[in-house]
Design a protein that fits this description.
This protein is of the alpha/beta class and about 375 residues long. The chain has two domains: about 5-245, Type I PLP-dependent aspartate aminotransferase-like (Major domain) (Aspartate Aminotransferase, domain 2, 3-Layer(aba) Sandwich), CATH 3.40.640.10; about 245-370, Aspartate Aminotransferase, domain 1 (Alpha-Beta Complex), CATH 3.90.1150. The chain is built from twelve helices and 14 strands. Helix 2 runs parallel beside helix 8 (about 235-245).
């Protein structure tokens, strides 16, 4: 699905030099590499404050802690997403309130969000899925009207730009109360282990986030809040500083690959290629098609492609409300029909910076041949 070996090979001398720099300094926790990465990334994100942490899940939990989410509170999240935003809500003693998503963008349904708000709603977490932003214009309006927080999960759409044509414009993670991201290796900006960050334009919130990341401490052995231990180590920060310089190129390469897929799959029976929301740029963390259920399921197509040595992934095969570990939320089959349908139709094709046209032609050919088995 992702050729990290090929990507690393192209920048290996820079990576080796960055790692050597950390080894020579013996500053493995904190230090100049982490602070410089934070500053450089903030500069790319319209001057936002960046608080690095250990991973994207921690970033979400720390963001919720900073705005005071706890027992008795509700946080609205999409039913079609990775589990992280839901599990951190539960871990803080709050209640995840699930809502459905749009069938074209796969992003959170704004009308469903508004209907789900109660007096206990503390925040909304839109997950910018697969590479493009949710409808931030509507979501910000809803959040403002109800005086609730908006925390953007940008792990899959990092540096995507939202512009609604009505004066609202900015990069993913910079428009709400704060944004979170992950530097998991397969992400568009990924390190060689785990890493994450929280993003905000609020100086006060940035200070609170930094304290929570360090055991609730603003000075060594002085604790002013309940916190966690969540740090980005210096080697990962040094690697990310190198890869940050190449991020624009990485995103462009993904867009070129997406356009080639579009061309090769145009008019293919039983296949719907990704919808581009005109209000958001797309960084194509995933290239996710939909298989028409009239013909067959995504799992059947996946099995056929596997025989041709073509890796694919189903993000996500089970919606949150049907996960066994979350039965206590008391949702049932049929509660979120779009999410349930998507779990049976979506299929993500290989998408990375090293894809060649020849590889994509091979993938597209076998995909179309696979569909023909059910036509």
């Amino acid at each position: 699905m992702v050729d990290l070996e090929g990507q690393t090979k192209r920048i290996r001398p820079e990576i080796d030099a960055a790692i050597a720099r950390v080894l020579d300094s013996s500053r493995f926790i904190g230090g100049d590499e982490v602070s410089s990465f934070s500053d450089e990334l903030g500069g790319m994100l319209d001057g936002a404050f960046v608080i690095p942490c250990a991973n994207g899940t921690d970033a979400l939990q720390i963001a919720l802690m900073a705005i005071g989410v706890g027992p008795g509170d509700e946080v609205i999240v999409p039913a079609f997403t990775f589990i992280s935003p839901v599990e951190v809500i539960v871990l803080l003693g709050a209640k995840p309130v699930l809502v459905d998503v749009y069938s074209d963008t796969f992003n959170i349904d704004c009308e469903a969000v508004e209907s789900a708000i109660t007096v206990r709603t503390k925040a909304i977490i839109p997950v910018h899925l697969f590479g493009q932003c949710a409808d931030m214009g509507k979501l910000l309006k809803i959040a403002k009207e109800h005086k609730i927080h908006l925390i953007e999960d940008t792990a899959q759409a990092f540096t995507s730009v939202y512009c609604d044509g009505n004066g609202l414009s900015g990069k993913a993670g910079t428009l709400g109360t704060c944004g979170t991201t992950s530097f998991f290796p397969s992400k568009n900006l990924g390190c060689f282990g785990d890493g994450g960050a929280i993003i905000t334009h609020s100086l006060d919130l940035a200070a609170d986030l930094g304290v929570i990341c360090k055991h609730g401490s603003d000075f060594k052995y002085k604790h002013i809040d309940v916190g966690v231990n969540s740090r980005l180590d210096s080697i990962q920060a040094a690697i990310l500083r190198v890869k940050l310089k190449h991020l624009k190129d990485y995103n462009q390469r993904r867009n070129v690959a997406a356009n080639i897929y579009d061309e090769l799959l145009e008019g293919a029976v039983g296949i719907t290629t990704p919808f581009r929301d005109p209000r958001s740029s797309h960084v194509f963390h995933q290239y996710t098609i939909q298989i028409d259920p009239f013909y067959t399921s995504n799992k059947n197509i996946q099995d056929v492609l596997k025989k041709a040595d073509i890796p694919t992934a189903i993000y996500y095969p089970i919606p949150i409300h049907l996960q066994d570990g979350y039965n206590f939320l008391d949702y049932r089959v049929g509660d979120f029909p779009v999410s349930e349908k998507l779990s049976k139709t979506v299929l993500s094709l290989p998408m990375h910076t090293e894809l060649s046209r020849e590889e994509q032609e091979y993938i597209a050919h076998h995909l179309k041949e696979a569909i023909k088995k059910w036509i």
